[in-house]
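ESCALATION

Customer reports they have been waiting on this structure for their group meeting. Please prioritize. Original submission:
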Amino acid sequence: MEADFSNIHIIMVGTTHPGNIGGVARAMKNMGLSRLSLVAPEAPFPHAKARARASGAVNVLENTQIFSTLEEAIADCSLVIGSSARMRTLPWPVVDPRECASRVVNVAQESEVAIVLGRENSGLTNEELELCQLLVTIPTNPDFSSLNIAAAAQVLCYEIRLAAALDITPVDKPDSPLATSAETEGMYQHFEQALTEIEFLKPDNPGQLMRRLRRLFTRTGLERLEVNILRGIMSAAQKVKSRSE
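Update from on-call: job pushed to the front of the queue and completed.
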């Protein structure tokens, strides 16, 4: 029986060369994936070069969604994994393609999942990475690490298909649905506002506090109920601060 990949999104951010969009679409269709999204591609889309490179995967291109920002593209996703060869000054949780695929297939049984591919020349920005719970890197020859974005997509899509064939089942079914990206982003904004109001966060010297909080919560896989509890705690703290004034 063919695996159901309908909850898995492949998202390309700021793509420079439209031919690469067709290459990724072809890689996806080979492995049974079909949901492609583009965030602010540099060239207008649809594009003839994308269609030419798709080579039979035109239906993937025809159903591709276009978004202005990554936040919009992942709003409904409960797991977001960024793909990048560049490591950052603040370490983010990192998985290899096989672990990435295992997590994707597991979560996709109940929720929407996204794998985000960065720009061909510079990958994802730090701000975009902060929207991801995990970073996946593909091991390559350290003397020549130059993997085309379509080739990277092929590796990741293959691992997803392989993981699905193993019939992975969730180890722990959550008590409530996993929080979406939009819900967790709302929580982070609430945290920043509340921590500022109670004078724990100094706006003129914020340091790495919010980024470290993001990294803390990416390790947990927050459920919707847990996000609501945390926001309730912040609201209570704000009320206490307001009454004291």
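Sent to customer with the following note: The chain has a mean pLDDT of 91.
Escalation resolved.
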